[in-house]
Amino acid sequence: MSDLGRVVVLAGGLSHERDVSLRSGRRVSEALREIGVDVEQRDADSELLSALRADPPHVVLPLLHGAQGEDGAIQEVLSLAGLPYVGSSAAACRQAFDKPVAKSVTERAGLSTPAAAVLPQSTFRELGAAVLLDALISRLGLPVVVKPARGGSALGATVVRSGDDLPAAMVECYAYGEAALIEQWIDGTEVAVSVVDTGGGPRPLPAVEIVPESGTYDYHARYTAGTTEFFVPARLRPETSDTVADAAVTAHRALGLRDMSRTDLIVDGHGRAWLLDVNVAPGMTETSLLPQAAHAGGLDLGVLTRELLAAAAGRGHTDRV
């Protein structure tokens, strides 16, 4: 049996990514139970804080995706309750969850990110959509990627190849958030590099190459088995593999993250790595990328998670990075 004591896995919540979170929670809970960890899975609902206070667990593993799970809210609550938890501090989560802010931070750290613009819905509505869209195309060209400035799982994200399709993409994006991030499309190989730190410093796992059959790694391609082909490790030249691994660790450190993260990148035809996104709560479903990378790196998901839990329990309830 594990000496961790009782572990609470948080999964569910009220974001658009609730179903993904529940799937992540079930998979990790099962993996932990298989190696003897005492696990209770709970939803993030109105009874959560009272339950945690009435019967405090030894350590908490938040597997909530999207708002409340990755924006620092649940981390703030756990800190207020005095409970140790796996993952980044509330402040670091807020910084990483805001994509335009994360772009600025990682660019200052020397990483390349696509040229972009940010448009709040109110600006788009009040200053004239047609003029703004023309200006966007003039500056960024086509194709572009339109996605919510805060969010995950590619919800509300669209690859736009024709100017005629841009208005609909903006409307779709605003259904998931107040601000849209419009980025220049980078053609190349899409990869994801997960970073874990069980106490010896952040280390990259093997890069996962992502090849969706539709050509776009959207929500359906992410979570529907058989719709995306993965290559682990990614089919990259050795020096390019080193480049994307270094970029992921640099992003992890620059954003002040801890325990685990996942960085999504595009490698262009010249071998240059472009950072797309940094995720502080990587998915743990059957099709998710961190578990695939862990397996390729010779790590058991349950054992790795137990080590992350032990590291979190060891540092106590402090919310310092």
Automatic annotation (TrEMBL):
Major location (coarse): cytoplasm
Annotated positions binding Mg(2+) 1: D264
Top class in the EC scheme: ligase
GO terms assigned for molecular function: ATP binding; D-alanine-D-alanine ligase activity; metal ion binding
Keywords for the protein's UniProt record, in alphabetical order: ATP-binding, Cell shape, Cell wall biogenesis/degradation, Cytoplasm, Ligase, Magnesium, Manganese, Metal-binding, Nucleotide-binding, Peptidoglycan synthesis
Pathway per the UniProt entry: Cell wall biogenesis; peptidoglycan biosynthesis
Cofactor note: Binds 2 magnesium or manganese ions per subunit.
SUPFAM superfamilies hit by this protein: Glutathione synthetase ATP-binding domain-like, PreATP-grasp domain
Function, as annotated: Cell wall formation.
Family the entry assigns: Belongs to the D-alanine--D-alanine ligase family.
The protein's name: D-alanine--D-alanine ligase
Organism: Haloactinopolyspora alba
Upper lineage: Bacteria, Bacillati, Actinomycetota, Actinomycetes, Jiangellales
